[in-house]
């Protein structure tokens, strides 16, 4: 230790000074040397104390560093991820306890073990490419793999690593993502089922990202109603507005303005199909917000209401006809001014018309002309006699 070395040096110096004092006979010289020796001894004592303090600090620092190292090694060993140091050939140089357990080994028998042996046949090539790429690029790389250990279920893992500065070894972390993969697979199944249900729907289900209005999702029903493919809407985000019937674009624009202000809207308008066909639709949409209140997308659905609109149009036409007929019936049921002599009828404007003209204008009845027996006998007696 430093303290022991300094004590030895001081003892030697004191001995030398004593010998020098004993070898001098002159009183003045002896006094001078003694004074110089005392100064030297004092300086050495100061130096000794300083070295002792430095030694104590070094001992404390070493103890603190050792404690930190022990904590680090403990964290390293029991970290949730496996950590490995591999050679360029893929053999294990060092591993933490978690890593050794993840590949079915212990720390004592994992050294120099070829890492690729624990991987499935289909992922060994991927891992070999990952390993080579790390040493080639000297950058952090990552890949996925499957660990297969006899007697255990396969485990999905994610590797992340980088080569060291020497280019002779690399540091790799291995994270078990089996549960994540299971959840992703379940989500894919759920998403597939939902997509199937949505695609079978007669309505168009759609979703756009905000603020760029790019397509998030459009169901296959868009091809049946709009006569256009899902791809066409992905390629042209403005197609939604472009296919609105020219006479309904003002209504459509007002609806979108309402959506911007209120976050939801409902519109009924006509769209023009590529073949020139006209389709009536009802389009309902609502804005979706994230946890911070920022709008992230707009979701909605479109329904073909052409049949309903046609029925409404036919109903309106029928109502008009019924109202018109009712008006005519009411006119004929009211008091009709008729001349006692010539039998002309006065209309609502004060004009006198023949009965035939008035009936034709105010009803759907068709009139035919003939003679009653009295008039026939009076005006055409010979005709009657001949007919008899």
What is the arithmetic mean of pLDDT? Answer: 82
CATH-level-4 superfamily name of the largest domain = PAS domain
Instruction: Tell me the Rg in angstroms.
Output: 52 Å
Q: How many domain units?
A: 4
Q: How many strand segments? A: 12
The CATH class of the largest domain is Alpha Beta
Q: Strand pairing plus helix content: what structural class? A: alpha+beta
The low-confidence runs, each spanning 5 or more residues with pLDDT under 50, are none
The gross shape turns out to be elongated
Number of helices: 13
What is the terminal-to-terminal distance? 164 Å
Q: Strand order within the widest sheet?
A: 2-1-5-4-3
Question: What is the percent of helical residues?
Answer: 40-55%
Beta strand %: 15-25%
CATH topology label of the largest domain: Beta-Lactamase
Order of helices and strands: HHEEHHEEEHEEHHHHEEEHEEHHH
Named CATH architecture of the largest domain: 2-Layer Sandwich
């Amino acid at each position: 230790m430093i303290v022991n070395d300094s004590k030895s040096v001081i003892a030697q110096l004191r001995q030398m000074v004593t010998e020098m004092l004993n070898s001098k006979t002159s009183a003045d010289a002896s006094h001078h040397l003694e004074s110089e020796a005392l100064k030297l001894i004092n300086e050495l004592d100061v130096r000794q104390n300083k070295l002792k303090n430095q030694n104590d600090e070094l001992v404390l620092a070493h103890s603190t560093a050792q404690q930190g190292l022990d904590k680090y090694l403990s964290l390293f060993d029991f970290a949730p991820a496996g950590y490995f140091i591999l050679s360029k050939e893929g053999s294990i140089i060092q591993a933490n306890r978690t890593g050794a357990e993840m590949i079915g080994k212990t720390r004592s028998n994992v050294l120099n073990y070829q890492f690729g042996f624990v991987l499935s046949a289909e992922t060994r090539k991927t891992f070999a490419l990952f390993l080579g790429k790390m040493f080639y690029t000297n950058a952090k790389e990552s890949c996925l793999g499957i660990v297969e250990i006899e007697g255990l279920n396969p485990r999905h893992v994610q590797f992340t690593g980088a080569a060291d500065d020497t280019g002779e070894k690399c540091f790799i972390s291995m994270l078990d993502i089996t549960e994540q993969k299971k959840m992703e697979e379940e989500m894919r199944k759920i998403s597939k089922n939902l997509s199937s249900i949505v695609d079978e729907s007669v309505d168009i289900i759609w979703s756009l990202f905000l603020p760029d209005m790019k397509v998030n999702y459009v169901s296959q029903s868009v091809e049946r109603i709009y006569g256009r493919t899902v791809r066409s809407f992905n390629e042209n985000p403005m197609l939604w507005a472009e296919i609105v019937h020219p006479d309904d674009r003002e209504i459509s624009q007002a609806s979108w303005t309402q959506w911007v202000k209120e976050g939801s809207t409902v519109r009924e308008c006509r769209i023009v199909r590529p073949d020139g066909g006209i389709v009536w639709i009802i389009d309902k949409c609502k804005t979706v917000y994230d946890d911070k209140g920022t709008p992230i997308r707009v979701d909605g659905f479109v329904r073909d209401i052409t049949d309903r609109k046609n029925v409404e149009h036919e109903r309106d036409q029928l109502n008009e006809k019924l109202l018109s007929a009712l008006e005519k019936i009411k006119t004929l049921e009211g008091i009709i001014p008729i001349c006692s002599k010539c039998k002309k009828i006065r209309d609502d404007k004060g004009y006198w018309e023949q009965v035939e003209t008035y009936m034709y204008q105010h009803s759907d009845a068709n009139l035919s002309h003939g003679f009653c027996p009295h008039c026939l006998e009076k005006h055409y007696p010979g005709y009657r006699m001949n007919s008899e």
